[in-house]
Amino acid sequence: MSTTVEPPPVLVVGAGPTGLTAAHLLGSRGVRVLLVERNATTSDDAKAISLDDESLRTLQSAGGLDEAVYPILVPGTGTRYFGVDGRPLVHARGTGDQRFGHPFKNPFAQPDLERVLREQLRLLPSVDVRFGTRLTALGRYPDRVRASLRTGGQEGPVEEVDVSYVLGCDGGRSTVRDLLSIPMRGRSFPDVWLVVDTLGDAHDQRYGMHYGDPDRPAVIVPGRDGRCRYEFRLRPDECAPGTPPPLALVRQLLAPYREITPEQVERSVAYGFHALLADRLREDRCFLLGDAAHMMPPFAGQGLNSGVRDAANLCWKIADVLAGRAGDALLDTYDTERRPHARAVIDLSVRLGRIVMTTSRPRALLRDLLVRTAMRTPPGRRYLTEMRYRPDTRVRTGAVVPLDGPGRELVGRPLPQPRVLHGPHYRLTRLDDVLGQGWSLLGVGVTDADWAALVPAGLPDATAVDVFLDDRTPRDRDGRTGIADADGRLDALFIGLTGSFVLVRPDRLVGAVFTPARAAHVGAELRQFTTHPRKATAAEIQPDPQGVPR
Questions:
Q1: Three-state SS at 414
Q2: Are 9 and 539 in contact (CB under 8 A)?
Q3: CA atoms of 362 and 198, how far apart (whole Å)
Q4: Residue 350: which of 230, 187, 196, 209 has the closest Cα?
Q5: What 8-state DSSP symbol labels residue 458?
């Protein structure tokens, strides 16, 4: 028997890390969300193991969610790579300055992360979470999506809900993607890896370890409270993907590192991996995020983090459209902005696997020689230790306005997050905590007349911030917050930009850097996204019995 109810305007399908993050980002902005998950509880599978600084910054933007997550993390220092002879090659730790306000690469256990994110959703009354609920059908209309949701198994009741948008965060075997008939393209790999999560481990390093022994490539990632992740590339016939690894094999592979008892094996699994990207990330009012949109080998540690980037890019746009601050064209930029970076990260993950985890001894020896040679030169050392081989995250096409002139290198990239001084008592805080959740506009050493010149430009509504340089005292005035440098990084970030404005999107990407004379041009370029009448949400729409799904 079917029933029809009036639901929230956004349906998130899948309560893994990406779906939970999306629900937080939307719910913390006041958007009503229905989050459904086909399983009865959050996952206990051995999956992601590393949360990077950008992901923690995204959680920070969701009402300070990072503070709830830190207790389950090891604040990490990157990855140390070892050569054929077992000696260290390089420690890739990023720039080491917490550029985005958080440690660079942080080990964690995914079941713990999902548990914390689920618990914190209870603080958001606008988010309704339903486990044991399966999506079975999607009917697409011009003004809504009708989703059929089944609870209680194959014979359970079906509920039909009309929503404005559907976010498919339901993993590599995505029901949303299948119902939309969106193919994934790429390849799957024949390599099989054994993953073992152990307890009572003596490793206390705050970095991951990749051992490039071609006879048995391996990864070790210590966690909190005696937990440790081990990963080994298996030889043919040792264990098939998806089958339970025998304890004898687990003991054999762990023997060089530790003894193990059955009680100390938290979980173990043999798996293969894929390098796949969906043909489209948007289909009408439906979107794909996380593994539903892209899958990649684990060697760059970016699978989960790419899903969090998807949520960070999309959720503020949906919130702005629902609030009447933007139109549908803004939602088209999700695919435009995320696809190139997702493709680049997939390709990097494949390349790292071929180089770091090769089973060819000649290739491994050549790799070691080249890395050791590069480490003897300052440019080579910076390239490797700061991971400059990672793909450029810059957004070049979408809701950004690149202009020639000072600051152009900032546009389309995440704004760094230094600590700043602000308020009458010169409080020390992270920059994002001053900017808030929406658009923000930073005036770098500008005058009241410069601010007045922006009024007719038609820029997005934004938190106005005065940036005081050269060790000047910050002052709040005329509704604007004043900030000043606390450790040299704010001054270094905006050097050469005195008299300019920096427009920052809600996802902390720099949308434009401009002088007052160029404000009208920036406003005109962004108006295609930000000046549309508000569309009715599904909660305001009466079901149309004559409507025919496309």
A1: strand
A2: yes
A3: 33
A4: 187
A5: -
Cβ neighbours of residue 492 closer than 8 Å, sequence gap 6 or more: none
Question: What are 98's two structure tokens?
Answer: 């917490």
Burial class (CB in 10 A: 0-12, 13-18, 19+), 545: exposed
Q: Distance between CA 441 and CA 275 in Å, rounded? A: 38
Q: Residues of the chain whose pLDDT is less than 50?
A: 1-5, 532-550
pLDDT tens digits, 286-323: 999 999 999 998 887 888 999 999 999 999 999 999 99
Nearest-angstrom CA–CA distance, 353 and 126? 42
What pairing do the DSSP bridges indicate for beta strands 165-168 and 286-288? parallel
* Per-residue confidence (pLDDT) for residue 535, from 0 to 100: 39
What is the DSSP-derived secondary structure letter of residue 222? E
State the pLDDT at residue 76.
Answer: 86
Answer for the pair 308, 19: CB distance below 8 angstroms, yes or no.
no
Of 73, 162, 68, the C-alpha closest to 121 is 68
Contact 312, 319 (CB under 8 A): no
DSSP structure class, residue 206? S
Q: Given the structure tokens 């962004």, which residue do they identify?
A: 526
487 vs 205: CA distance, rounded Å: 28
How far does Cα 479 stand from its chain's mean position?
A: 32
Place of tokens 């949400």: 537
What are the helix (H) ranges across 65-207?
Answer: 66-69, 110-121, 175-179
Report the Cα 275 to chain-centroid distance in Å. Answer: 18
Rg of the chain in Å (alpha carbons): 24
Q: Are 316 and 29 in contact (CB under 8 A)?
A: yes
Task: Say if pTM beats, i.e. exceeds, 0.85.
Answer: yes
Please, what sign has the CA dihedral across residues 111, 114, 116, 119? negative
C-alpha 313/C-alpha 318 separation (Å) is 10
Q: Which two tokens stand for residue 172?
A: 């590599």
pLDDT of residue 274: 93
C-alpha span between 258 and 255 (Å, rounded): 5
pLDDT of amino acid 546: 35
- What sections of 375-409 are H helices per DSSP? 378-385
Give the tokens for residue 132.
Answer: 């044991």
